[in-house]
Amino acid sequence: MNARIPHEKVKHSRETPLHWAASNDDVALAEILLDAGADIDADGGIILAGIPVWNAVIFRCVNVARCLIERGAAVNLMIVAGAGRRDLLGQYFDEQGQVVADAGTLPCWDEHRYAESALNSAFGFACRNGHVTVAKELLELGVDPTIKNPTGDTPFKQAEEGAHKIVIAWMKGRGIEE
C-alpha cells in the first residue's frame, strides 16, 4: 500500500497508490488504503513532490481532498482553500487578518511559500475548484486576483477551465477577468 511508483518524466516523483487515488478523486480506494495503513502524508507526488492531499487539490479532486483532511492529512492554506474548507481558513491568519508565516508549509517541502504567495495561491485554488465562499473571504483579506499560477493561468482562467459558473459570474461581477 505504500509502494513507490517512479514517474519516467518527473525525477522527484515517487507516488504511492494513495497519491493515485487522490489524483483520481477515488474516495473509496483512498479509504481502503488508509484503513490498511497507507501513509497519509507520503511525499513524492508528481507536483512539487507533494503529499496525496496536495495532488487532490491540484487535480480538482475535492471529494478525496476532504476525505484526507478529515482523516488527518497535513494541510496548509492552499490545501484548505482548494478543498473548500472555509472552517479551517482562520488558522492561517492572525488577529489582524494577516497571513501567518507557516501558511504555505507542508512537511514534505524543504522550503515553504511566503505568506503572500500562499494567500494568492490559495485564492487560485479556491477558484480552480469552485469554492466561491472561500474565494470571497480570501479576496477580502487582500488577495491579488491577477497573480498567475506557475503554469501561467490566472484564477479566472482556472475557474473557467473547471467550468465553475458561479465563481466565474462572481469574478466578472467584481471586474476580475483575464
Strand order of the largest sheet: 1-2
Taken in chain order, the helices and strands follow as EEHHHHHHHHH
Uncertain parts:
none
The CATH homologous superfamily of the largest domain is named Ankyrin repeat-containing domain
Q: How many E strands?
A: 2
Report the helical percentage: 40-55%
Defining key terms:
178 residues; 2 domains; Serine Threonine Protein Phosphatase 5, Tetratricopeptide repeat; 2% strand; 43% helix; 9 helices
Describe this structure in words.
There is one protein chain. This protein is mainly α and 178 residues long. It folds into two domains: 1-74, Serine Threonine Protein Phosphatase 5, Tetratricopeptide repeat (Alpha Horseshoe); 91-178, Serine Threonine Protein Phosphatase 5, Tetratricopeptide repeat (Alpha Horseshoe), CATH 1.25.40.20. The protein contains nine helices and two strands. A two-stranded antiparallel sheet has the order 1-2. β1 (5-6) and β2 form a beta hairpin. The protein is globular. The protein starts with a strand and ends in a 5-residue tail after the last helix. The mean pLDDT is 91.
SSE topology:
Blueprint: E1 5-6, E2 14-15, H1 17-23, H2 27-35, H3 52-58, H4 62-70, H5 77-82, H6 115-128, H7 132-140, H8 155-161, H9 165-173
Antiparallel strand pairs: 1-2
Helix pairs in contact: 1-2, 1-3, 3-4, 6-7, 6-8
